[in-house]
Design a protein that fits this description.
binds MU-OXO-diiron, 0% strand, mainly alpha
Length: 164
């Protein structure tokens, strides 16, 4: 079954949004590098790479369905933040946006009875539960830490252990 044009468009937009997500997280990594918080930077670099994988998975799916991937320009990310807490607050909000976008595509695929796309998007729905939980967990730790530098450095050391 040929892929519906609107679904193709929505997925192409999502490829762009996943690339943009990667760009945001890489920019957050650059901010943490500049703050000498290497563990936070490590976590964000791995997160940026995860986003590229999400984009790649959509890319492969579009091609598998015999449709066309059309890449668009990627919006420039924000570059400055005031604190690690602000960064993770935004990362968590961003992940909630990603989830809403995935649900929106899934809603349309359900309407079209495009079961292949619905099934494909289930992977992202599950992944988003994890993405939201991961960013929220770190945000909550940062809220507890407050202004205690020692707590911040301990969390930095914990985040340096994340592996891609
Ligand atoms: Fe690709 Fe973090 O969602």
């Amino acid at each position: 079954m040929l892929m519906n044009e609107r679904i193709q468009e929505l997925i192409n937009d999502q490829i762009n949004y996943e690339m943009y997500s990667g760009y945001i997280y890489l920019s957050m990594a650059a901010y943490f590098e500049s703050e000498n918080l290497k563990g936070f930077a490590n976590w964000m670099k791995i997160q940026a790479y995860e986003e590229l994988k999400h984009a790649q998975k959509f890319f492969d799916y579009v091609n598998e369905r015999g449709a066309r991937v059309l890449l668009k320009s990627i919006q420039a990310p924000k570059t400055e933040w005031i604190s690690a807490k602000e960064v993770f607050k935004e990362a968590y909000e961003h992940e909630k946006n990603v989830t809403a976008r995935i649900y929106n595509i899934a809603d349309y695929a359900i309407e079209l009875k495009d079961h292949a796309t619905v099934s494909f998007l289930n992977w992202y729905a599950d992944e988003q539960v994890e993405e939201e939980a991961n960013t929220l967990e770190i945000l909550q730790k940062l809220e507890k830490i407050g202004d205690h530098m020692q707590g911040l450095f301990m969390l930095d050391s914990e985040l340096s252990k994340r592996e891609g």
